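Severity: low
Component: inverse-folding endpoint
Summary: output formatting inconsistent between runs
Steps to reproduce: submit the following structure tokens with default settings.
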């Protein structure tokens, strides 16, 4: 049996063990009535601004079983990297936003950290990361948010010009940062949220944020859309919220095949892509990308859309939690996905890119 096949088999059988460890970690956090000031969950927190060495290994094929295949649903595989670092705080990446060229990135770790840097390319393929820096997310008082009880689970990120929004899952709060006032050293302002957001499950709460740019000729211009991972409405569908903008309110995303939301991105075309994932004891991790028409979203609406892409552990995936998009000078729409390794030796930090072919 090849090393690759052995690794794939190990991952399939280890997936259940990994899930058990993750569930145990969550259960401990929820059961503790008075957790210590710095609980186990933030042992990898970024405490100070620091330059970070990141190593990259290429992923030449998205499906190792068929190395000639490049098309997967509506996506065409471009390139991928396995990222590692000697820096203890590197990992847990739950969201990413790129500049218009797809080079400079801003990522957020689920242990209260920023990561910035530049993606290096050669012939259109990613080859590594340069100029990587880490910094703690700061609260309004200028201290790392990890110093506040349960405020370390930063899972969602959205950008609107100089403003960056970060969703905190366990406390279901949203912080707004003005990067014009110090970049990653800026202080976060707590954004008022609807009562329904505060009622989301502590570990299945805010997971994805999208800003609809102002100036667009459609009803949601200037709205922050917040998606829950698995906050369910009365019919078992996934709850989401329209914050600010002309028509604030709550709507639902039809839940299909027990997938949960892990991130979302708005394309220039007005198409909203939702990254979803699920775990099964038999198949391990599965991911999917669905397309939702932005014009279908309104208070009280139940929205749905087709799957553009599905993948499982037969492909080069892991716990994929972040998605963003940019358009190349040639007019191609490129999707970038990043995984959260949970700081586990059984998981990987993957950076994947695809061209949206349809």
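Observed output (run 2 of 3):
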């Amino acid at each position: 049996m090849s090393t690759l096949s052995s690794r794939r088999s190990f991952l399939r059988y280890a997936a259940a063990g990994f899930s058990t460890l993750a569930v145990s970690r969550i259960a401990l956090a929820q059961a503790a009535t008075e957790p210590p000031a710095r609980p186990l969950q933030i042992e990898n927190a970024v405490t100070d601004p620091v330059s970070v060495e990141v190593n990259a290994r290429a992923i030449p094929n998205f499906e190792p079983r068929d190395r000639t295949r490049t098309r997967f649903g509506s996506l065409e595989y471009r390139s991928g990297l396995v990222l590692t670092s000697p820096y203890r705080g590197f990992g847990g990446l739950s969201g990413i936003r790129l500049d218009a060229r797809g080079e400079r990135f801003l990522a957020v770790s689920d242990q209260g950290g920023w990561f910035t840097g530049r993606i290096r390319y050669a012939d259109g393929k990613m080859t590594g990361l340069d100029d990587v820096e880490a910094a703690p997310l700061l609260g309004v008082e200028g201290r790392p948010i990890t110093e506040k009880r349960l405020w370390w689970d930063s899972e969602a990120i959205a950008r609107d010009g100089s403003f960056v929004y970060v969703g905190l899952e366990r406390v279901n709060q949203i912080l707004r940062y003005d990067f014009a006032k110090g970049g990653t050293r800026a202080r976060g302002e707590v954004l008022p949220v609807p009562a329904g957001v505060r009622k989301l499950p502590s570990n299945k709460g805010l997971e994805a944020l999208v800003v609809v740019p102002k100036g667009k000729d459609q009803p949601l211009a200037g709205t922050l859309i917040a998606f829950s991972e698995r906050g369910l409405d009365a019919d078992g569908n996934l709850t989401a919220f329209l914050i600010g903008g002309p028509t604030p309110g709550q709507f639902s995303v039809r839940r299909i095949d027990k997938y949960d939301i892990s991130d979302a991105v708005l394309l220039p075309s007005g198409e909203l892509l939702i990254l979803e994932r699920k775990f099964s004891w038999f198949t391990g991790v599965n991911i999917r990308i669905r397309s939702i028409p932005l014009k279908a979203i309104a208070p009280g609406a139940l929205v749905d859309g087709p799957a553009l892409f599905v993948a499982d552990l037969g492909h080069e995936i892991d716990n994929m939690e972040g998605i963003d998009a940019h358009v190349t000078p040639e007019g191609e729409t490129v999707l970038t996905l990043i995984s959260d390794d949970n700081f586990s030796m059984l998981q990987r930090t993957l950076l994947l890119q695809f061209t949206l072919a349809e």
